[in-house]
Structure formats: C-alpha cells, structure tokens
Design a protein that fits this description.
This protein folds into two domains: 107 residues, Rossmann fold (3-Layer(aba) Sandwich); 179 residues, NAD(P)-binding Rossmann-like Domain (Rossmann fold, 3-Layer(aba) Sandwich), CATH 3.40.50. Helices cover 30% and strands 17% of the residues. The protein is built from nine helices and twelve strands. A seven-stranded parallel β-sheet has the order 8-7-6-9-10-11-12. It has a five-stranded parallel β-sheet with strand order 2-1-3-4-5, with helices on one face. The longest helix is centred in the first third of the chain and has 19 residues. The structure holds glyoxylic acid (GLV). Glyoxylic acid binds next to loops.
Length: 311
C-alpha cells in the first residue's frame, strides 16, 4: 500500500507539504486539489475544509489527516467513509502561536494598554489603577494540547489559572472544573476567559447570554477556538452593557466575517482573520509522516479522532 497522497485545501501551502513529506517518506505521488488524477490511486487524504462528499469518492483511501488541530471542518461532511481512520495534526509550532496570541490580548487588557494609548493621544500623563496579577483570574475552556499550553504559560506569569474540560483531569498548578455542572462556577471565577474548545454538538452555542452573565463583571473574552461556540447577539449585548470589558476574536460563526457584521466596528472588539495559529508543514509533518508509516504497517495511530466525541 503506497498510493497517492491527496492534498485537499484551497490554501496555497501544498508544495511545502510535498517537500516535507518527501524528506521523511522518499518520493511521494502528491496530488493537489484540481489535479487529483485517478481517484483509485489515493491512499491518504490531507484535508482542510474539504468540499463535502469529495473524500467519499476515493475508493481505496486508508487514512484521513486533518490539516487543522480542530476537525469540525472534516466531520461536517456527512459522507466521510465510515471505516477510514481520521487523525489530526499535532503541531507544536501552532500550539505555541495560539498561546502567544492569547497572552498578547490578555496582557494588553491586564495592563490597560488601550487606556494608555488613548491617554497618549490626549497628551495625558495619567497612571491607571491596576489589578494585581495574583487577583486577575484566568479561565481556559478546553484542556487539550493547546489549552494545557495556554494554561501553563499564564500560570508561569503568576496568574491564578483554572481550566474547564468535559472530563476530569489533573494538571499541576491548574484548578480543573469538569463537566457542564461546574461550568457556572468556573465562569464565575474567570476574569479573563480563553476559549480553546473543539466545536462539537456539545459546545456549539455554549457561550450564550447565561454564560456571559456568569462571568465576573468587566471580564475579558478571548476566542481562539471556533466562532460556533458563541451566540453573537449575546456577546454584543454583554459588551454593550459593560458585563464584558472587551473581546479578542480570531474566529467567527461565518468566516470570512460578512462585511456588514457588527463585530467589524465594535469598539470593544479586536478582530483577526483566523490567524492565531497557522499549521506549519515543518513542525506538523513529523507526526503526519509517522502516522502514514504506522497505517502502512497496520500499527496504532497517533492523535486519532473519535468522530462521536468530535475531536
Ligand atoms: C485551526 O483552526 C485548526 O483547527 O488548526
């Protein structure tokens, strides 16, 4: 079994993937979207937001690799071949970028940088009252590889950090709240909330009016996960009432965000176009190569997705 590798993505980083895969596997028959050739030849599909139904047309497919750490873009395709295992990339480079992004916005909020920028514009030399790091509680929703890295890095800076996850777990120095029953308590102690959850049927719309109301007044929200967790109207209402001091959003319910969406112009929203963490073929490829080898040898796979759980 050494068939072709299909690269299914509308992004333009196909050629670097061919090079990094060949460095580990030797010459590969690499087929980008638009030049897939004979579909019978395709053994492995590397995919990011594949056109629904396309993967089902590869009759000899043995492995699906999600080019994102999130797999909602794949599982949205209800015609995925049931017996073909799905693995997701596990990219240290991407994980580090996600943490950087969360730290950047959290520290900008924590140190009142926007207020000082306004003071500078007004030629006003005025120290602001500050909140001590020990009293700025950070809450990280989702404790997978990214959430753990985010939580650990905030804790290193001295913030009290808690995490929320579906199932209980133990993490050094991080208070863990598990399950839906504990969500309200977790939110109630999160002055800065960082969303790193996967998008599943359990997490869609989780951040609604009740969730924002459960946060301490003046909390700050950072979404580096998926826009589908957020009820947009509830977020806007929480910002407008002052319940939330601000939000940094890297993701949206609809991407690209439509031109007439209120997020674009809201003065308490910082918006970026899903760039918090980019998949880097150099750092993501070792595990992909290992998984292709393992699949060929019939060995257990790394980072395999449970389609029922949705991650
Ligand atoms: C990006 O959003 C990813 O899932 O890796």
């Amino acid at each position: 079994m050494t068939g072709a590798i299909a690269y299914i993505s509308r992004d333009s980083d196909g050629p670097p993937w061919k090079a990094v895969l060949e460095a580990g596997l030797g010459p590969v028959d690499f087929r980008p979207l638009g030049a897939l050739g004979r579909l019978e030849d395709i053994e492995v599909a590397l995919a990011w937001k594949p056109p629904p139904g396309l993967i089902a047309t590869f009759p000899n497919l043995k492995l699906i690799v999600s080019l994102g750490m999130g797999v909602d873009h794949l599982l949205a395709d209800d015609r995925l071949p049931a017996g073909v295992p799905i693995v997701r990339i596990m990219d240290e480079g991407l994980v580090g970028q996600m943490s950087e992004y969360a730290l950047f916005w959290a520290l900008r909020h924590h140190r009142d940088i926007d207020k000082y920028a306004a003071s500078q514009r007004a030629r006003r030399w005025r120290p602001e009252p500050f909140v001590d790091t020990l009293h700025r509680r950070v809450g990280v929703m989702g404790l997978g590889a990214i959430g753990q890295d985010v939580a650990r890095k905030f804790a290193l800076l001295g913030f009290p950090v808690a995490g929320w996850s579906r199932t209980p777990r133990t993490l050094d120095g991080i208070e863990v709240f598990a399950g839906r029953d504990r969500l309200g308590t977790f939110l109630g102690r999160s002055d800065i909330l960082v969303d790193v959850l996967p998008l599943t049927r359990d997490t869609r719309g989780l951040l609604d009016a009740a969730a924002f109301a459960a946060l301490p007044r003046g909390a700050y929200f950072i979404n580096i996960a998926r826009g589908g967790h957020v009820v947009d109207e509830a977020l806007l209402a929480a910002l407008d009432s002052g319940q939330l001091a601000g939000a940094a959003l890297d993701v949206a319910n609809t991407e690209p965000l439509p031109a007439d969406h209120p997020f674009w112009t809201h003065d308490r929203i910082a918006l970026t176009p899903h760039i918090a963490g980019a998949t880097n073929p150099r750092t993501a490829s070792p595990a992909v190569i290992e998984n292709i080898r393992r699949r060929r040898a019939g060995l257990p796979l790394l980072h395999q997705v449970d389609p029922q759980a949705g991650y």
